[in-house]
Amino acid sequence: MQYNTAIFIKKQKRMNINQLEKKLSESLEYLNSCTDDSEANTVVYQCISLCDNILELDSNHVTALISRMKLNLHPTINNTSDYIADAEKLAKNPVFSPDFRMHGYESLIYAYNDLLGMTEQAIKIAEDQLIDVQGLFSAQFQKHGAEAHVLNTLGNLYFNQDNTKQALVFWSKSFDKDPFIFERNQMGVHHLLAENWSEASRFLTKYYQYCYNYEDDGFRVALGKKLEEFLKAGKLDNEPTLIALYYHIVRNEEASFGIKSTSGFIENYFQDLLAWGEKFPQSSLLWVAIGNTCFFIDNYVKAIEAYSKVLTGDAPFTILVLDRLHTACKETDTDFFAIPMPKGEFPNELYNVATKYLQFYNAGEKA
After folding, report:
1. Does the pLDDT at position 2 exceed 50?
2. Cβ proximity of 321 and 354 under 8 Å
3. How many angstroms separate the CA atoms of 286 and 338, rounded?
4. How far, in Å, CA of 174 to CA of 152, rounded?
5. pTM
6. CA-CA-CA-CA torsion for 322, 327, 330, 336, nearest 10 degrees?
7. How does DSSP assign 38-100, residue by residue?
8. Dihedral, CA atoms, 316, 319, 325, 328, nearest 10 degrees?
9. Domain residues of the chain, as ranges?
């Protein structure tokens, strides 16, 4: 039988890499739990050496490359230049997956902006990343998500340079690609403080809907207080979305607004909320607040009336409304399927609502 030297060398190389990978994994795990600084310093250098050995055998070994990047920022090493060199390789090498290449760009931006204070260079890198995104992702939703992320980064970089005007341009472009980026809430706040009501409504409402359950270090309460100030000054009289956002915040942050329960909200705020709903019957967000208030005190008849207006209003956006409407109908023996469903150009939201509606319908048919 003919001996294949090339296959033997390849297998031996793979065996060597496997052994080095195992050793690297064990060493990194030990480093993470190491409490002795002197010993940790020694282990860091050992890990760097293991990464080097793996990359000598396989120059595109992504785990070793990323591990070496992180190790180069360890206080023992603090080698920013080598970190940048590895990040450039990760960002620019087409053999790596799109996600790893994006990580490479993000690492470069971090190095130049956060470590070296060279924000202009970080902006140039982000601009290059935005160009590369076009060829990295084929699926439209992936491309939009990546573009949104990079545009948001550009907004942050300009904001850190005190160029708020340019930051808002990039944040707005990012929002158009993907409205659900958690840390972008400051965009809406800037528009609110500048009294750009339509832009503030657009951005703040999406942020609040998506990020309600996140820890926000008092952001929601501060936003509610600012909205309250504008509302009392009469500046929001024609801004139903911002008015509704205020009442949603008050109802969910009761203690910060001097109330202790839903009954306190009803006593102090509900009549004004209802009056705003009557003034703006097409404001879905106002009628969500009204419907939720009725639902939580088991006034299901009034909740049905309010939720029905949500679904025929300007933004029938939330599946939660449909769930609660369905519950209220069951509690009152009301025909859920006789209630008009949304109409209009809300493709993503309507898809979700229609899907939920179909689930209820199928469940009813089986019953």
Report:
1. no
2. no
3. 23
4. 6
5. 0.75
6. 0
7. HHHHHHHHHHHHHHHHHHHH-TT-HHHHHHHHHHHTSTTT--HHHHHHHHHHHHH-TTS-HHH
8. -160
9. 179-274, 292-367
Angle at 342 between CA 290 and CA 335, to 5 degrees: 75
Give pLDDT, residue 8.
Answer: 41
Question: Are 135 and 98 contacting, i.e. CB atoms less than 8 angstroms apart?
Answer: no
> What is residue 341's DSSP assignment?
P
2-11, 72-81, 117-126, 128-137: the lowest-pLDDT one: 2-11
Q: Which contiguous run of DSSP H or E holds residue 21?
A: helix 5-33
The pair phi, psi for residue 314, each rounded to 5°, is -80, -10
The Cα 228–Cα 338 span in angstroms is 38
Better-scored residue on pLDDT, 34 or 25: 25
Give every CB contact of residue 259 below 8 A, 6+ residues apart in sequence: 250, 265, 267, 268, 269
255: tokens are: 């203690």
Residue 227 Cα to chain centre, angstroms: 23
